Amino acid sequence: MTSTTNILPVDPLRVGKFIPSSSQLSSIEDWRLEPSCDSPDYKRLASAAAALRESNIPVAFPTETVYGLGADATRSDAVRGIYKAKQRPSDNPLIVHFASLAQLRSLLRPASDSAELHSNTADDGISPIYAPLIERFWPGPLTILLPLPKQSPLAPEVSAGLHTFGARIPRNALALALIQLADRPIAAPSANASTKPSPTAAEHVKDDLDGRIEIIIDGGPCDVGVESTVVDGLSSPPAILRPGGISLEQLRECPGWENCVIGYKDRAEGDGEDHGIGEGPRAPGMKYRHYSPKAPVILHEFGASMPTVEQLGGSLSEEKRSIGIIRAGTWPSGLGYVNLGDDLEDIARGLFSALRELDRKDVDVIFVEGIDESRGDVAAAIMNRLRKAAEVKVSD
To answer: Quick one: which residues bind L-threonine (predicted)?
Structure first.
């Protein structure tokens, strides 16, 4: 346990803003953050950045996907602080967040000079297969798998024994400003207790980690609501290892990714983990149960009949009387505590909050209406999370 956990509200508009460059190049280098150094918001963010540099206690901060729990990715003691606070298994690797492509290049090629780091044609240790993805989706909810550089400055706990690591540049002004101010690559999984639903608001982080960390940067609710898509361009064909904010269809529109395959297996297809027998997880979120509230979740796959009164009643013992229901567009609108609607983006943003809301209501069992995965990869990402959360899956 640590001292009291403090939520520090920070308005991104008072910290800085994105301003387009006058460059004609279509590159993520065209975006710069312009800080407003005298504002109280900026000073709060600067204090959190100092904690990332100097402390071994992780800092929670918002991204466009979910809230992250960050630590200096180059210091083992700091990275171990993430695993301790989350009670996360040590063989579950972490994603490293960067503020710019130049910062990532400096980690992969530390001997390169400044001009080369900012060049769009640099031999930077990033496989050319990723170039169209970086151009189109960074900053954004996409994580790419990269080989660890020789004499890697990353703490070994980041990669959890793998020869690769996940890298991402988030599209969130506070996240980018925090990483810039810390001047460190930041390892950051979701800022929840291990196995619990991912946090999409600062209050969710405090619910799980109160007393385990000291600082939560509150930048408001997250825009996307599910974690980043993780891709492996080092394999042939390239693969999605975790569905998320970027769809398979979007990836296949990029040169070299036309034959991208799905490299994960949902628990709807079997009870095994999302990797081969005898193999470790290739990316975060592939091995362990995730996203689970306190109450058991019964997932009705898309097309399955809604639960009958008898099924609802039969799900409870004599001592348990409270049922939570999450509907997603097909079940009658008067049914259930939480209505996510039928818009995919609304469902993605509201899913984890709905599970947490029913936890707060102290329900004994949660029934969830599944959605049609043919609607795209956001739908696939939602169902992937629900299957990992569910104890029982019902299909007709």
So the answer is: 65, 97, 168, 188, 228
- 163 annotated ligand binder: no
Read off the pLDDT of residues 151-161 as tens digits, 9 standing for 90 and up.
Answer: 899 999 999 99
Q: Which of 183, 113, 107 is nearest to 151 (CA)?
A: 107
- Could you say which DSSP state residue 46 is in? H
Paired tokens of 26:
């279509």
228 is annotated as contributing to ligand binding: yes
Locate the DSSP E strands across 30-83. 31-33, 59-61, 68-72
- Nearest to 165, CA basis, from 85, 97, 115: 97
Flag whether 97 is marked binding.
yes
- State pTM to two decimals: 0.85
For residue 136, CA distances in Å to 139, 302, 376, 377 come to: 9, 32, 19, 17
For the chain, domain boundaries: 6-218, 297-394
The reply to whether 14 sits in an annotated binding site is: no
Least-confidence region, from 60-64, 117-121, 247-251, 300-304: 117-121
> To which residue do tokens 């993430």 refer?
82
Tokens of 66: 């979910």
Residue 343 φ/ψ, nearest 5 degrees: -80, 125
Run of H or E including 262: strand 261-262
Q: Is 360 annotated as a binding residue?
A: no
Name the residue with tokens 């608001």.
201
50 annotated as a binding-site residue: no
CATH homologous superfamily of 297-394 equals Threonylcarbamoyl-AMP synthase, C-terminal domain (3.40.50.11030)
**164 is an annotated ligand-binding site residue:** yes
Distance CA 279, CA 263 (A): 13
Tell me the CATH class for 6-218.
alpha beta
198 is in an annotated binding site: yes
Fold agreement (6-218, 297-394): no
Dihedral sign for Cα atoms in the order 322, 323, 324, 330: negative
CB atoms within 10 A of CB 82: 25
Over the stretch 301-334, which tens digit does the pLDDT of each residue have? 998 888 776 666 665 555 556 888 898 877 876 6
**Cα distance between residue 336 and residue 345, in whole Å:** 20
Known binding residue 190? Answer is yes
Identify which of 80, 131, 82 has the alpha carbon closest to the alpha carbon of residue 105.
Answer: 131
Q: What is the pLDDT of residue 125?
A: 83
